[in-house]
Amino acid sequence: MLFCALTTIAQVVNVTNASQPHVVIETSLGTMVAKLDEKRAPKTVANFLELVDVGFYDGLIFHRVIAGFVIQTGGYDVEMHRRESSREIPNESFNGLKNLKGALSMARLADPDSASSQFFINLNANTHLDALPGKPGYTVFGHLVTGTDVAEAIEFAETGIRQGMAGVPLEPIVIHSVRRRPEEPRPGTTSSQRFLRDF
Predict the structure, then answer these.
(1) 0.70 exceeded by the pTM?
(2) What is the pLDDT of residues 57-98, one digit of tens each?
(3) Would you say the C-alpha torsion 33, 37, 41, 46 has a positive or negative sign?
């Protein structure tokens, strides 16, 4: 009986894990896979997946790379032209998720509700980006499940200043595509929307 109960619990856990959306991020330096937490960051994940489904991130670069901190993307192409998205999404940083190494978080301006398309991958435990009582942080909405070696390769790319922005890799690191993992469902999509700049 105990074995059957444990088996049932394990099956429930596996089903729960399997139901979380995953995205495959194909870059010029390799592939990363991220699991998204749509239960604790539903509006952020919904917005992100809408952008994924219309190919918004394809051809963009990692434009902000700071070793030991973050690698950021979602706003500029190889020519440093801005790609815009019109939707701003509510801050969901009080969801209990932390800016730990490998966590995906939304970039934003000073306004907590100004996140749109730009996101970053934490390279360290950036606890100063987490929400505090009465003070919104940066919304974590997923984490890498594979490809930490790719994130590290991006982290140590040689960078410089382009168009007044520091931390831009001298050799562009391009996102070839971001797609739902093949078994993920794909609902109806909307048009891509305006992005907001770095946090």
Answers:
(1) yes
(2) 999 999 999 999 999 999 999 999 999 898 999 999 999 999
(3) positive
pLDDT, tens digit (0-9, with 9 covering 90-100), for 15-62: 344 579 999 999 999 999 999 999 999 999 999 999 999 999 999 999
- CATH code for residues 20-180: 2.40.100.10
CB neighbour list of residue 164: distance below 8 Å, 6 or more residues apart = none
Which amino acid appears at position 22 of this protein? H
- The candidate with the shortest Cα–Cα distance to 182, out of 53, 19, 17, 24, is 24
Q: Could you state, in order of their start, the residue ranges of all structural domains in the chain?
A: 20-180
Distances (CA, A) of 90 to 76, 85, 129, 146, 166: 23, 15, 16, 28, 28
